[in-house]
Amino acid sequence: MSAITVRVPAKVNLQLAVGPLREDGYHDLVNVFHAVSLFDEVTAAEPLDADPSAAPLRVRVEGDLTGEVPVSDDNLAVRAARALADRAGRSYRADLLIRKSIPVAGGMAGGSADAAAALVACNDLWGLGLPVEDLMEIAADIGSDVPFALLGDTAVGTGRGERLAPLETAGVFHWVFALADGGLSTPRVYGECDRLREEAGVAAPTPAVSEALLAALREGDARALGQALSNDLQPAALALRPSLADTLAAGRTHGALGAIVSGSGPTCAFLAESAEHAHELAALLKDVDGCRSVVTAHGPVPGATVAG
Predict the structure, then answer these.
(1) Burial letters for 50-78: b for 16+ Cβ neighbours within 10 Å, e otherwise?
(2) Catalytic residue at 86?
(3) Which of 29, 109, 233, 295 is found 20 to 30 A from 204 (Cα to Cα)?
(4) What is the pLDDT of residues 243-259, one digit of tens each?
């Protein structure tokens, strides 16, 4: 094939429990991932030119806020494609086109999703036929959120989030996401979390999965799930972006079953009772100060999938 397109979802963290800072600079985590129906698309194509001096891997980006996405070797999709070629033990060429719909630097793992999509697309384009287990291993070396973008649905991640176990989930959950102006740096948010804990004299607890959250997922109970949502990074995100507190309060005032900062932020996630309630809530939130836009989605959905 001359081109392969892969669709890949965003994620929301239903629980993000952050443990002590490790010697390697990471934190031990319990991270309950939930894939939602906001998608990027990544197309890997054979280069049209045969210029041997051209870079073997090139990337273009289309969509909103494309100026915030690197089109250099720092792009996670390029890094993923290069890691795949290294695993195969030879040089490969590809032009990558990323069509962005997932917020950039919004705490929804958009860059990690693009990396996962590039792995799947280039694996097919280059005819490597590597099994998903190998792709998961490569993904874990690229970033903590990349393996989940391959897996999708709902899963709990441990270690730094890359060791995944699927979770039983009944039914469909409906979400509203309030997208903020500008992003938040994930390392900066983790650093602020450590600083706030040190300032308060609070030792980081050993992270553990919430049994109430697991039960809510198994039973498909949206109201119980809303009450069980938790994010240890939320105080840090609010300290760095105080306006997010007003966004969360507005969602609760308008009847959200749960309101939480997604991952490191600044996107705020609201759980709704139904698709109709999600659309009503989105309409009410769109005029809140600090919201660039509001979108609805549902979950869980599959991970990176070759488009038909």
Answers:
(1) eeeeeeebbbebeeebeeebeeeeebbbb
(2) no
(3) 109
(4) 999 999 999 999 999 99
